[in-house]
Amino acid sequence: MTESGCLIRPLAPSDQIPVMDIFNYYVENGFAAYPERPFPYEFYERMLAGTQGYPTAALESPQDGVIGFGFIKPYHPMPAFRQTAEISYFIRAEYTRLGLGNQMLNYLIAEGARIGITNILAQICSLNEPSLKFHQTHGFQECGRFLGVGQKKQTRFDVVWMQRRIA
Question: Distance between CA 87 and CA 75 in Å, rounded?
Fold first, then answer.
């Protein structure tokens, strides 16, 4: 149980609908998620498959059920990069700016460190200023930028890579 009264636990098959609803909200409303159209609920299984052996998280409110989710996944399949992981997490819009992102990040970092992860990478759209600031505030530094490689809603954007050493 977190200080907010929410529970953070591993993702479960039963989280499919709320997780995809949260993700698709960000698909349709801004640049936090890259797809241009919502994904079907079945995409959840593929998402989980990509995190096999790595920590996942469902953020559950006693009143509203799953209000956020996150995971870390391998950055690269080669063994030379086994201590580096990529992080992703999303919180329902009405629950942002309440400290829940901090709790999700801290949980995923602690769980990552427990399995030997020493570096966390975040891939962020250059148009997503709140996420860039959030990560910078939490010890991430920009370590790479791919200029103009993305386009969504007829708007070009950079992909910004940020890194945080955790061990």
Answer: 9
